[in-house]
UniProtKB/TrEMBL annotation:
Originating species: Jiangella alba
Quaternary structure annotation from Swiss-Prot or TrEMBL: Interacts transiently with the RNA polymerase catalytic core formed by RpoA, RpoB, RpoC and RpoZ (2 alpha, 1 beta, 1 beta' and 1 omega subunit) to form the RNA polymerase holoenzyme that can initiate transcription.
Protein's name in the database: RNA polymerase sigma-70 factor, ECF subfamily
Span of domain RNA polymerase sigma-70 region: 15-75
Keyword Transcription regulation attached: yes
Amino acid sequence: MVPVTTDGVAEFLDVRPQLFGIAYRMLGSVAEAEDIVQDAWIRWQRTNRDEVQNPAAFLTTTATRLALTAATSARARRETYPGEWLPEPVDTSDDPALGAERAEALDLAVLLLLERLSPAERAVYVLHEAFDYPYRRIGEILEVSEPHARQLARRARLALESGRAEPAPPDMRRRLVETFVAAARDGDLEGLERLFTEDVTARSDGGGKVRASRVDLEGVERVLLFIDNILRKYWSEATFTVVDANGGSALLVTNPAGAAQAVLALDVTTRGVERVLFVVNPDKLRGFGRQ
């Protein structure tokens, strides 16, 4: 076995943001993505680097394959997850595209849709749409032919396009988030109602650690009642702030001590707000608020 050394640090650091961006999009978890990056680093250190012609390609291939394996096991774990599962939000204030060429496959609502795909379909979509990898190279990483990679991409796009309406442009999304924040601060339920589509849904992820609805709530009336209860019972003294998360605008809720209570993401399409995603699991809020 090649001993672990400190050589190759520069090459690894150059590509580290991309490795994290791929793993995070594949897994929807900051902690699991960090584990993938760490495993890739260990393998890089144990590799005879004199034989590696392209360090970035080697590391990208390694991280993607590790993420494929992790995605398969993660799917099984989520079958026993307490309540509904949501991706972990990530602060993108310093890197809106999170290591990628484009901020694709980063929105919480899209990450949730990616869970419907097989790990291989997810990998192809992420590598092509976010990182602009050609299908020939994707095929090499996944050890499939180029036509097969294209077929996986078509299936992924069809599944995602059938799952939501046309996404709203960024300026419209931020405007609706800011309007949502103002209405939430004032307890203006009528103002919130005007933002929602008739078939709006709400999903909460408490991870079994804080109180949260264990089922999706559907329809304007149920979603408004849910929000009203939260505002009155749990967030009466909270501070609401618009933050940069997952390549767009989200709502951070903090308690008087500055600790994060929730991150809310709005799935905004040209129809309006179709879904409200409440991440309240404290393990998924470590990147926000005062610790």
